[in-house]
C-alpha cells in the first residue's frame, strides 16, 4: 500500500464524510432532532458504508484509525447550524450533498478494494456499499423509506459509475480519468433522477 494511494483515499474519505455528514444532519434537523441526535445521525451517515466495507474487506475500520472523521462530522454539524435556514429550506440541498457524498465514497470504496488486491467486480460492489449503506442506516434511524430502495436511480448509479471506472481502465485510461468518469456518471444519474424523474421499472404483482 503506497503512501500516495493511502493519501488519496484519506482525502476522498474526508470530503465524502463532510458531504454525507451535512446530508444526515440536515435531514435530522428537519425531523427536529436535538443536537446530539443530529450529530449521531451525521456520524452514522458518514461512516456507516465505509465501516461495512472495511469489515467485509478485512481491513482496519477507517474511522477507528484517526479522530479526523468524527471531527469532520462535527464540522458538518457546525455548518448546518450556521447555515440552517439555507440548508433546510429545500429538499434539493439534501440530495445535492447526498449525491456528492455518494460519488466520492463510491470512488474510495473501489480504490480501497483494489489496494487490498480484490478483483474489480468486488471493488464495484464495495463502491456501492461504501456509497449507499450510510444513507440506508440514516433513513432507517429517522424512519424514512431508504433512498436505496426507492424507484430513484441510487444504488444503480453506483454500479454504473463503477462499471465505467472499470471500462476506462480496460481501455488504458489513467486511474484519475477513471475516478472522474465514475464520479461524473453518478452525479449525472442522480441529477437526471431528480430533474427528470429517471427511474428503473417498478416491480408489480398482478392479483
Please tell me about this protein's structure.
44% of the residues are buried. By secondary structure, the chain is mainly α. α5 runs antiparallel to α6. The longest helix has 28 residues, at 3-30. Helix content is 75%, strand content 0%. The model has no long low-confidence stretch (mean pLDDT 87). The protein has helices at residues 3-30, 35-57, 68-82, 84-87, 91-115, 120-141, 155-170, 175-196. The radius of gyration is 17 Å and the shape is globular.
Topology summary:
Layout: H1 3-30, H2 35-57, H3 68-82, H4 84-87, H5 91-115, H6 120-141, H7 155-170, H8 175-196
Helix pairs in contact: 1-2, 1-3, 1-5, 2-3, 2-5, 2-6, 5-6, 5-8, 6-7, 7-8
List keywords for this structure.
single chain, 207 residues, mainly alpha
Return the average pLDDT rounded to an integer: 87
Beta-strand portion reads: under 5%
Distance between the termini: 55 Å
Main beta sheet strand tally, sense and closure: none
Low-pLDDT parts are none
Question: How do the helices and strands follow one another from N- to C-terminus?
Answer: HHHHHHHH
Computed over alpha carbons, the radius of gyration is 17 Å
The number of strands is 0
* Secondary-structure content class: mainly alpha
Binned, the helix content reads over 70%
Number of helices: 8
* Shape verdict: globular
In short:
By secondary structure, this protein is mainly α.
